[in-house]
Design brief:
Layout (H helix, E strand, L loop, with lengths): L1 H26 L2 H6 L25 H10 L11 H9 L8 H19 L9 H13 L1 H4 L5 H20 L8 H16 L4 H18 L11 H20 L6 H17 L22
Helix pairs in contact: 4-6, 5-8, 6-8, 6-9, 8-9, 9-10, 9-11, 11-12
């Protein structure tokens, strides 16, 4: 029986490997790249800002110093740790730039990124990176969009549409729980921000309710029983509510209901110093600045 189970696992592994290679081949094809094109939105709305995501901003001095030192050549850097390369490409550092003195720098680096990586790239277009890049770009409205060159704005918006379509087409590949909630949050933000793409908000909210129903139990705790998952679920729900408010859209009742129930569990678990208990895979995290 043990040998049979091992053989079955081997077959499943081969199947997954084949499917992954086939998917990568499709993503890199010219037909797929064309399919990610879309209508240029007539208007962009400021439905998020740096203040709302300030707790997600990456202030890593190594990344920021690299950006300021190498400017547009920063994309040629290969000697950083994988985690820092990932954060460089998801643009978590972008909102940390000084809006008054480094706006041009931010725009130049984004422009060069689009020149280099406008089409699917297996390293820098993974869905987790795309999700956060969409959130950081759109939330950096004053750096990217306000009083910027119209050609540059159009270039960025077209690429946002492209990345969003890639996410939307492949959202079934995002695992459930916090990762799926983040992906739906990104779609909601895009729909809030760009005229003619409101269907992403509708899709995101509908599927968010379903995902929360599957991920949160009747007591208001996440089914993974991981305090870190509880925190990030609550965080992104509050963020979505703020985005909807800023867009002058009504917040669905289910979001407030889940924020209330998750908030009660969060207050119960949170230590007085802001730490969360470490069990069921939770990483050390201090929530003092979020509270």
């Amino acid at each position: 029986m043990s040998n049979l189970n091992t053989f079955n696992l081997y077959l499943l592994s081969l199947k997954k490997s084949f499917q992954d290679r086939l998917r990568e081949k499709k993503f890199k094809s010219s037909n797929y790249n064309v399919s990610l094109g879309g209508i240029q939105p007539h208007r962009i709305y400021e439905s998020s800002n740096i203040f709302l995501i300030q707790d997600l901003i990456n202030h890593d001095p190594i990344i920021l110093n690299s950006v300021r030192k190498f400017t547009t050549n920063v994309w040629k850097i290969t000697n950083l740790e994988d985690d820092k390369i990932k954060k460089l490409h998801n643009f978590s550092w972008l909102p940390a730039l000084n809006i008054k003195t480094e706006k041009e720098l931010g725009c130049l680096i984004i422009d060069q990124w689009i020149n280099n990586f406008s089409n699917y790239n297996e390293k820098y277009w993974t869905l987790d990176i795309v999700i956060m890049r969409l959130i950081y770009w759109i939330s950096s409205y004053e750096i990217i969009f306000k009083n910027s060159d119209l050609i540059f704005r159009s270039k960025v918006i077209n690429n946002i549409v492209k990345q969003t379509k890639h996410l939307f087409k492949n959202i079934s590949l995002v695992r459930g729980g916090v990762d799926k909630i983040k992906s739906l949050a990104a779609l909601i933000l895009v729909g809030n921000s760009f005229e003619q793409y409101e269907e992403y908000t509708q899709y995101g909210l509908k599927n968010l309710e379903d995902e929360l129903g599957n991920f949160v139990n009747k007591d208001g705790f996440v089914k993974s029983k991981n305090p870190e998952d509880l925190f990030w679920t609550l965080y992104f729900l509050v963020l979505i509510r703020e985005w909807l408010t800023l867009s002058r859209k009504q917040t669905p009742a289910f979001i407030n209901i889940y924020i209330n129930s998750l908030g009660i569990c969060f207050k119960f678990l949170r230590f007085s110093n802001g730490d969360l208990p470490l069990f069921n895979g939770a990483n050390q995290i201090n929530t003092e600045k979020f509270y």
